[in-house]
Amino acid sequence: MGTDQSIILETRDLTKTFLGFTAVDAVNLKVTRGHIHALIGPNGAGKTTCFNLLTKFLTPSQGQIFFDGQEITGDQPADIARKGIIRSFQISAVFPQLSVLDNVRIALQRNTGTSFHFWRSDKSLDHLNPRALQLLDEVGLAEFAQELTVNLPYGRKRALEIATTLAMEPSLMLLDEPTQGMGHEDVDRVTQLIKQVSAGRTILMVEHNMKVVSSIADRITVLARGAVLAEGDYATVSSNPAVMEAYMGTTQGELEGAHA
User: Fold this and answer.
1) Counting CB atoms within 10 angstroms of each CB, which of 6, 159, 187, 255 has the fewest?
2) Considering only CA atoms, which of 229, 230, 221 is closest in space to residue 51?
3) What domains sit in the chain, N to C, each tagged with a CATH number?
4) How far are the Cα atoms of 81, 136, 141 from residue 129, in angstroms, in the given order?
5) pLDDT tens-digit profile of 216-243?
6) Measured between alpha carbons, how far is 178 from 167 in angstroms, rounded to an integer?
7) For residues 218 and 37, what is the distance between their CA atoms, to the nearest angstrom?
8) Cross-strand bridge partners of residue 40
9) List of residues 6+ apart from 10 with CB closer than 8 A
């Protein structure tokens, strides 16, 4: 990885094959510290497989992964999380029958050494309330602290998931389709939330919505058939003929329209 301290995450020839099918093909990725970096591509491009390799839910067939200058290719998923790479999943991963506040308090337990002490009185977690409420305020959910999570609209559940991710104090947040399944209003709210919480943090996100990508991503990597097709800012990738061809039926006007 050299001496470039601006790069927080790097992959070198990252490859994953399944019974002869190459899902991720020699991907070289560099994520700059403090940036929002988007990983995009048509369905089947290898984006989620790439995320699974980075978090070690899958083992690479070939290649290396470096985080903060250290190789982590052989690390286990729990080791990856302890190092500060925290992933938010496509499907909202919160406890629906607990309050919004309790969801964040559970996430905060990771740093107290009481992560699995569920038999204790919930009063033992009261010391976490100030930080939990601060996180809820950061994602615009402070007024919903005592609400049962099951009662939240979908977009606010995703905001809660971002709060629980932030509770893990990530150095690098991996957001997997953060606006999937949302209506226009929720997409706009969550897009602005991601931009807001990115201050002083690094985010790598898989996202299909080109309007979201164009409005907040500092850098974009386009995957097609598991390989890197193009990389750069939105203006660069949206005008790349190979990118337009990869998005079947996508015209340059549609790509440019997403930026409007």
Assistant:
1) 6
2) 221
3) 1-84+171-260 (3.40.50.300), 93-169 (no CATH)
4) 23, 10, 14
5) 999 999 999 999 999 999 999 988 988 8
6) 17
7) 6
8) 222
9) 1, 28, 29, 30, 31, 65, 66
The token pair that represents 43 in the structure block: 């369905």
**pLDDT recorded at residue 259:** 46
Tokens of 67: 């985080």
For every residue of 117-150, DSSP letters joined together read -TTS-GGGGGGGHHHHHHHHHHTT-GGGTTSBGG
Enclosing H/E stretch for 222: strand 219-224
Handedness of CA 23, 29, 35, 41 (dihedral sign): negative
| Radius of gyration from C-alpha coordinates of the chain | 19
Distances (CA, A) of 29 to 78, 92, 108, 228: 22, 27, 31, 9
Task: Measure the CA–CA gap between 182 and 211, rounded to whole angstroms.
Answer: 13
